Amino acid sequence: MTNQVNEGPELGKIFQNILLFALVALLPGIERSIFGWLHGALPLLTFFYLCRYGLHVGNRLVLSGSALALTGSLFFQAFASMLISLSLIPTGYVLARAAIRRDTPAYAGLKGVVTLGSCWLGLIGLFTLTLATAPYAVFLSSIDQGITEAIEYYRQSDSVSSEALIVLETTFYQMKIILPLIMPAILTGLVLITVWFSMAVGNKILYQVSGQSPWPRYRTWQLPGRLIWVVIAGAVFTLLPLNSMRIFGINLLIPISIIYCFQGLAIFSFFVHKWNVPILLRSFLYVMIVFQSLGTILLLGAGLADVWLDLRKLKEPANPKTTDN
Predict the structure, then answer these.
(1) What single-letter DSSP state applies at residue 277?
(2) DSSP three-state, residue 101
(3) What gap in Å lies between CA 157 and CA 161, rounded to an integer?
(4) 0.70 cut: is pTM over it?
(5) Which tens digits make up the pLDDT trace of 263-303?
(6) DSSP 236-247
(7) Which helix (H) or strand (E) holds 87?
(8) DSSP character string of 41-73
């Protein structure tokens, strides 16, 4: 595992970094439909600054950028959205400290997930107390209203046949029932993807800009073998006759499946690198396997199979010989 990179930026780059951080934090509140995705980059940017320039300088960059963004949010009347941005920053700190402590990627990811989940729960509690309404309930209500409006739209549309309309209505009504039940798993999956993105991309960027990174290359990352018991527990709960237990099992299986998809993607990355697949074809394969439903199933299957088969042959033998690093 490589050491932490600690190089102070030049004066001009200091202002650029502060401005970049402020824009990433502020723009989603100004125009969410266009810049909302930038929220997910805040833990990554925080992690990068702290690891690239050290905790002392990186902390000043993050705090200065946050203060500038907070001032801008008051001017643009986007303070509520700014609170969402601020709730993402602690995750970057936790990941950076985990990298400095040389925690394994799995342990660092667990810390990041707990931190981000706790921050979001705290933010929901804050909004509930100050606005006298539950944001989670409002969110579910907006989804239900959106589905109802979609049903009405297709009912009034002349381009949809009666047979197709029946299928659409059945699908939409099932969504109205199922989505509220699995929403905890969906939100947990969003937390997992945000933390994974910050770690995997941040680790790669640090390696590219400095030749060093806090963790090994993503293609060699491994999940703890004991995690498979969570999959087994989720499957058992899903098969139980009690409806509440089945719902709990499904909400357990969805996030753990996402985690094993991450491992499946690491396995895929390992082999395309090992076989020296051309960059253009490699990029095409990445897009296909991530965004196709069959590709997602293959990633999940590879991630689960690696627990027993060690597809990349990364596990050390029982009595390994001493070698030089």
Answers:
(1) -
(2) coil
(3) 9
(4) yes
(5) 999 999 999 999 999 999 999 999 999 888 899 999 999 99
(6) HHHHSS-HHHHH
(7) helix 79-100
(8) GHHHHHHHHHHHHHHHHHHHHHHHHHHHHHHHH
